[in-house]
Write a structure and sequence with these properties.
alpha+beta; 310 residues; three-stranded antiparallel β-sheet; four-stranded antiparallel β-sheet
């Protein structure tokens, strides 16, 4: 129990940017009056080993702390001073999470001219960013739950407690908001996630480069879910998935100060889709109020599109 508290307080000190955190023995929890304690860390042992020595060996990653024993108003007191956790511990922990996830994912071999190379089912950058987002944006006030990664045969779902602070359809263009800015800042400093506001852009970019179905972002009330899908041939992509890909491609172009065209959307789908089919997808996206025409006076072949909210 004391080891868990040391780790938790070291992490809290790091996230809050404070120099130390403390545990005090000998003070009444309600009145804060000194009442004394019988706890003597210098005399305590665990498994025939001095308590402080045992804790220093077992805490991983390593955390610096020090016990102080003294008298105050004629009663015995103990204060445990805990140093902030090293940011490198977060990097190691996050890498462990990502390696554990990737070990469970299916992979395939890409055969080149000389070597065989094993590739992951999902782009590393996209997967890493979404897992980091789930950690950063979780709502710690919702108890009994935590971020969750669920792996299925053709998709991976990443869920965190807390409804999104930005509409899911505006994840890419709106300025980001975070419930846990200290944590977000720390994870950016140690290169766990992308620079502020660029994460979802990188996700969409990687998905488009691999011609995969567009990710699905859902507001589930007390939860936010992001879903990545494995590669599918265009003929196996549903109408909903085609419209979602069209919308996010249009948003991606918009934040680059460009506009989506029939040609750019066709390229997003590997150029294997006919021009009439692409035109049909664009028309349906307009009917669903996902996108709109950029310039009404442009000719049919020169027509370009922007998101409906632009």
């Amino acid at each position: 129990m004391i080891g868990e508290r040391i780790s938790a307080l070291a992490n809290s000190a790091t996230l809050c940017g404070i120099p130390h955190s403390y545990i005090v023995w000998g003070v009444d929890d309600d009145t804060h009056h000194p009442i004394g304690t019988t706890f003597k860390p210098s005399m305590s042992k665990y498994k025939q080993q001095e308590l402080e020595s045992w804790l220093l060996q077992k805490l991983e990653p390593k955390i610096d702390f020090c016990f102080f024993e003294f008298k105050y108003r004629d009663v015995d007191m103990v204060v445990l001073e805990i140093q902030p956790a090293s940011p490198s511990g977060y990097a190691v922990g996050f890498d462990f999470i990502m390696n554990s996830i990737k070990a469970l994912l299916p992979s395939y071999e890409e055969i080149g001219l000389t070597f065989r190379k094993e590739k992951n089912t999902y782009p590393d950058i996209a997967l890493r960013e979404l897992v980091a987002n789930a950690l950063i944006h979780q709502d710690f006030s919702i108890t009994g739950t935590s971020p969750m990664v669920e792996i299925f045969s053709h998709r991976i779902e990443i869920t965190n407690p807390g409804s999104p602070l930005v509409e899911v359809s505006r994840f890419m263009d709106k300025p980001p908001r975070s419930r846990n800015e200290y944590l977000a800042s720390l994870m950016r400093r140690i290169n766990i996630c992308e620079e502020r506001g660029s994460g979802i852009d990188k996700v969409i970019r990687q998905i488009e480069l691999n011609q995969m179905p567009a990710p699905l972002f859902e507001d589930l009330g007390d939860y936010t879910k992001a879903v990545l899908f494995t590669y599918k041939e265009f003929s196996n992509i549903s109408k909903e998935e085609r419209l979602r890909a069209c919308y996010w491609h249009c948003v991606f172009k918009y934040i680059l100060l460009e506009q989506m065209s029939n040609a750019s959307l066709r390229e997003r789908f590997e150029n294997s889709v006919s021009v009439p089919m692409i035109s049909k997808i664009i028309k349906e996206a307009q009917e669903k109020r996902l996108i709109k025409i950029f310039d009404e006076e442009a000719g049919t072949k020169a027509m370009k599109y922007i998101p409906f909210w632009a």
